[in-house]
Amino acid sequence: MLEVDRQQVMAYRVATQGLLRTASDPAALRVFDLGVQDSTRDTALLALVARSRASASLVGDSRFTLAWTHRGAPHFHRSAELPGLAAALLPLDDADARARMAWRRRDVEQAGMPVTEAIRVTAGAIREVATAPMTKGAVSGAISPRLPEGLVRWCRPCGVTHVHEQLMRLSALPAGVGLVAGASPATLMPLDGVPGVPASPDLAGATRIVRHYLALHGPATAADTAGFVGTTGKVVERSLWPDDLVEVRVDGRRAFLPAEDADRLTSPPEPAAVRLLPPWDPLLQARDRAVLVPDRAHHKEVWKILGNPGALLAGGEIAGTWRAKVSGHRLALTVSPLWPLSPAVRAAVSEEAERVAAARGLGLGSVTWK
């Protein structure tokens, strides 16, 4: 059994997730083994900026495709790997499906069918309808009348009855449908390589997802992994736990890591990088937040219920938060450090701010320190 401290874990994650900026090819970054979450705030683009030496965009790059995957959130994946996820992300059983849908007993009763069947029925309807790029609203409007009454809900904000939001998101990829990157409003499109709704879940593929999480965010527990996947720790332990893991004690806490990564954990490179991480950056997706930010009083600054800021990485620590505001063709950044930072770190932040602005096609207006 290995014994390491939190600083070693942070140094390992910084290096493993490509934040030392040594990769020249974005497709080679290990974060794409799991996928990189995106939003309308260019989060995936800025996650790439933090890791890539060359300026690059995921939009328009055929090597990457956007889809609703983990927890129903939009993620960029390597295009060649996305069809395999259609079966790997199918819930294993009804308990798993209820957890991923966050459905209670009343929701299941209202559906009138097992949740796994509800996903398959909805996926079949999406596949029939989304044969060309269509907005999310158009797809929802087209499939809702085709679905059993128990799978649609009255939506007060929309003022109509339509398919349950999370049900649509979890059913899209099994239907062979992804998202048009950069489109607003959200636009669905058919994918190549998914011949039909998978007949059954791909257990080996689902286990591989767990293994990727442990490699990128480890050492970690089954509960940590389940939080990312969107299921329960029992499901992960019972059905998805990989065999080739080593047990690690992190400051006395029991966790696990793929055996092939053990040497990198015990002797990681020095995490000297200063990076401006976007909201939902892969590094911030770990579920053991006390490892990322040990002072719990700072958690409410880094992770908010609505409107997460970006995070400042310095010396292997989350050292602050940042927000950006666009005015004309200029980008202004406001940085809020969690503790006093050296002049060298502040200068490096300004350099990173230039990269962030350039990636968004803007000039840098100012960097303000709160």
Structural commentary:
With 370 residues, the chain is α+β, with helices and mostly antiparallel strands. Among the domains are: 46-190, no CATH class; 274-369, no CATH class. 37% of the residues lie in helices and 21% in strands. It contains 16 helices and 16 strands. The chain has a 5-stranded mixed sheet, covered by helices on one side. The protein has a 3-stranded mixed sheet with strand order 1-10-11. The chain has a 3-stranded antiparallel sheet with strand order 2-4-3.
Features:
alpha+beta; five-stranded mixed sheet; three-stranded mixed sheet; globular; DNA-binding
Can you describe this structure in just a few lines?
The protein has 370 residues and is α+β, with helices and mostly antiparallel strands. Among the domains are: 46-190, no CATH class; 274-369, no CATH class. Helices cover 37% and strands 21% of the residues.
Rounded average pLDDT: 94
Distance between the termini: 44 Å
Shape designation? globular
* Percent of residues in β-strands: 15-25%
Can you count the beta strands? 16
Radius of gyration, taken over Cα atoms and rounded to an integer in Å: 21 Å
* Helix-strand makeup class: alpha+beta
Estimated helix fraction: 25-40%
Major sheet attributes: 5 strands, mixed
What order do the strands of the largest sheet run in, or round the barrel if closed?
12-13-14-15-16
Q: Please work out how many helical segments DSSP would assign.
A: 16
Poorly predicted ranges (pLDDT <50, ≥5 residues)? Answer: none
Pfam families: AlkZ-like
Protein name: Winged helix DNA-binding domain-containing protein
InterPro entries: AlkZ-like
GO molecular function: DNA binding
